[in-house]
Write a structure and sequence with these properties.
mainly alpha; two-stranded antiparallel ribbon; 19 helices; globular
């Protein structure tokens, strides 16, 4: 497999980030060594099993940016990053220093894997019988769920955020991760199911259509990602997200993110780039000169900037996104998404993510557990 330097960008003028290239090459080598011989790689496809999840977890542990890695090929760039953890000294604007803390990348990746595996199991158990009254999309999706594997879904979830070992910048993560897994040789039926930020940039009124285009594995990975996040002493629920959207908390998050210090790296988030007024009007129905937008933005130049960027579109799409996910799961399962997520909340504690037991055991526990009774 090629270990060529990652080029980050979305246009013809791609830039090469040499410091990140060092991390990239080292991490590719570790991934190849940890996954070699497993059915996770394209040269040895087969049925994914629970022990394969432990290979992924081992890889994530070894490449953890807060692991000094003394005596390994990763030592140099890890230690360089460790000198950058103090406020004001970040070289990447990223959060490498809290990688293994509760609610951070490693924790939420493990939780997403557990939640995704459980949701795949329960959707398969509660699938509706296909009939000719259903749309072609619904029948196609039911067929995909019938053929899907809980372990394969878990592998998709366990690898969905690996780009964050290279950068914490949204947008750059997607590009880096795709190149990373291509060089590692991870199977396309795993990588193709990873979340794509383009879903959150769907033109106005087309979120349902966008969600309808996703595969069964893609849907479950998104659900694992969204509902495997700690919210205090519980995991996020569907009600939490709806409230979050309706109260404008997503907009506040986006404004805070937008004002983060830029890293200056060639891989800096493309979502900070400006959308033209023409595109905002044509694809999203956003006219910054209209009375409605003036009322929403007022004299806040930061909000004006937000709505000229992809971050503003992302926020605008949050509520339609969760509504579309709920509809799609309700179309294929006799159990609502709300009930499924309530089951998850009763079965999975946020503390399980960082428990010192094998990932395969954590996943197996929810695959064999009796579904809890909920009030939904």
């Amino acid at each position: 497999m090629s270990n060529e330097m990652p080029q980050v960008g979305h246009n013809a003028a791609k830039l090469t980030d040499h410091e990140m290239g060092g991390r990239f090459t080292a991490a590719v080598g570790v991934a190849r060594s940890k996954l070699l011989g497993s059915p996770l790689l394209i040269e040895n496809p087969g049925k994914v099993s629970l022990p394969d999840l432990d290979r992924i977890a081992n890889f994530l542990s070894v490449v953890s940016p807060v692991n000094p890695g003394v005596g390994t090929e990763l030592e140099k760039w890890r230690l360089e990053q460790r000198t950058s953890f103090e406020p004001g000294q970040m070289t990447d604007g990223s959060s490498f220093g809290n990688w293994e803390e509760p609610g951070r990348v490693l924790d939420t990746t493990i939780l997403a894997t557990i939640v995704g595996a459980y949701l795949m199991r329960r959707i398969k158990e509660t699938l509706r019988e296909p009939d000719m009254q259903m749309s072609d999309i619904t029948r196609r999706l039911i067929s995909e769920f019938q053929d899907a594997s809980q372990e394969h879904a878990a592998a998709v979830c366990a690898t969905h955020d690996v780009g964050r070992i290279l950068s914490q910048e949204q947008g750059a993560v997607d590009a880096l991760q795709k190149r990373f897994f291509k060089n590692v040789g991870l199977r396309p039926d795993i990588t193709n199911a990873h979340p794509d930020e383009q879903v959150m940039l769907a033109p106005c009124g087309r979120m349902e259509e966008t969600i309808d285009s996703l595969s069964a594995y893609s849907l479950v990975c998104r659900l694992g990602d969204e509902f495997g996040k700690p919210n205090g002493e519980a995991l996020y629920t569907l009600e939490d997200y709806i409230q979050w959207c309706e109260q404008g908390e997503g907009e506040q998050w986006a404004l805070r993110y937008q004002e983060r210090q830029k890293s200056g790296r060639p891989s800096t988030n493309y979502m900070h780039e400006t959308l033209s007024s023409e595109i905002l009007q044509r694809d999203y129905g956003i006219d910054l000169e209209s009375e409605g937008m003036r009322h929403r933005i007022g004299s806040d130049s930061n909000k004006s900037k937000l709505y000229r960027t992809r971050l503003g579109v992302h926020v605008m799409n949050q509520l339609p996104y969760f509504n579309a996910l709920s509809k799609r799961i309700g179309d294929v399962s006799s159990v609502s998404l709300q009930q499924l997520i309530n089951e998850v909340g009763l079965l999975v504690s946020p503390s399980v993510g960082l428990e010192k037991i094998a990932l395969s055991e954590k996943v197996n526990r929810v695959l064999v557990a009796e579904p809890p009774v909920t009030n939904a």
